[in-house]
């Protein structure tokens, strides 16, 4: 029997990953378990060492530890090393290796909807590990212009210095119309209940020439990114497709089994 887990702060108790992965293991006839572990910031190193001690086959890393776990890993994939954030860990031969499947999941989603980023412009909200993955892929896909918007000025500058782009404060964006082809929410906030301040700022946001608004969160009954897209007559997607693609990559890293993303979507929709 193989054991997998997700590591995060107190929010990990609300994560959908345990239900999704447990259902997937059962669907594929694999004897295994997937459990959430709440870890305090000062216990990250101990938690990573425990993966080895307990012979846990693989782990996911949730916000806010996608960057904090890196010093405690034995090796990083090339992509994870470039991005500077990881969301998937494999444990093989007592070696912990970190990967970033957020980036590939995002790229696969753009491919699914037929959005060609080459020569286009993008506006990315967020300064964490997910935002890093998004900006990395947009640069990889030769996006001509990328604006990274965040509340933390220093973190925003660090992302654009690492990959390229233009750093902006979220407040400044609501004061002028923006011509961008793609808007991506890479923050953890999508509902007014999560941040009334953010909801108010996005309500004032005016975008032109936009072909897609992609919110990498999912499962919100109220979603101010969706409302913004509707007001501006822009196609909207939540993060379910991206989640399915990144889970596909993670599952393959853990098990070596290739499963079509459609199968993951079935499991995800049944367990939301």
UniProtKB/TrEMBL annotation:
<comment type="pathway">
    <text>Metabolic intermediate biosynthesis; chorismate biosynthesis; chorismate from D-erythrose 4-phosphate and phosphoenolpyruvate: step 4/7.</text>
</comment>
<keyword id="KW-0057">Aromatic amino acid biosynthesis</keyword>
<keyword id="KW-0560">Oxidoreductase</keyword>
<protein>
    <recommendedName>
        <fullName>shikimate dehydrogenase (NADP(+))</fullName>
        <ecNumber>1.1.1.25</ecNumber>
    </recommendedName>
</protein>
<dbReference type="InterPro" id="IPR006151">
    <property type="entry name" value="Shikm_DH/Glu-tRNA_Rdtase"/>
</dbReference>
<dbReference type="InterPro" id="IPR046346">
    <property type="entry name" value="Aminoacid_DH-like_N_sf"/>
</dbReference>
<dbReference type="InterPro" id="IPR013708">
    <property type="entry name" value="Shikimate_DH-bd_N"/>
</dbReference>
<dbReference type="Pfam" id="PF01488">
    <property type="entry name" value="Shikimate_DH"/>
</dbReference>
<dbReference type="InterPro" id="IPR036291">
    <property type="entry name" value="NAD(P)-bd_dom_sf"/>
</dbReference>
<dbReference type="InterPro" id="IPR022893">
    <property type="entry name" value="Shikimate_DH_fam"/>
</dbReference>
<dbReference type="GO" id="GO:0009073">
    <property type="term" value="P:aromatic amino acid family biosynthetic process"/>
</dbReference>
<feature type="domain" description="Shikimate dehydrogenase substrate binding N-terminal">
    <location>
        <begin position="10"/>
        <end position="89"/>
    </location>
</feature>
<keyword id="KW-0028">Amino-acid biosynthesis</keyword>
<dbReference type="GO" id="GO:0050661">
    <property type="term" value="F:NADP binding"/>
</dbReference>
<dbReference type="Pfam" id="PF08501">
    <property type="entry name" value="Shikimate_dh_N"/>
</dbReference>
<dbReference type="GO" id="GO:0009423">
    <property type="term" value="P:chorismate biosynthetic process"/>
</dbReference>
<dbReference type="GO" id="GO:0004764">
    <property type="term" value="F:shikimate 3-dehydrogenase (NADP+) activity"/>
</dbReference>
<dbReference type="GO" id="GO:0005829">
    <property type="term" value="C:cytosol"/>
</dbReference>
<keyword id="KW-0521">NADP</keyword>
<feature type="domain" description="Quinate/shikimate 5-dehydrogenase/glutamyl-tRNA reductase">
    <location>
        <begin position="117"/>
        <end position="216"/>
    </location>
</feature>
<dbReference type="GO" id="GO:0019632">
    <property type="term" value="P:shikimate metabolic process"/>
</dbReference>
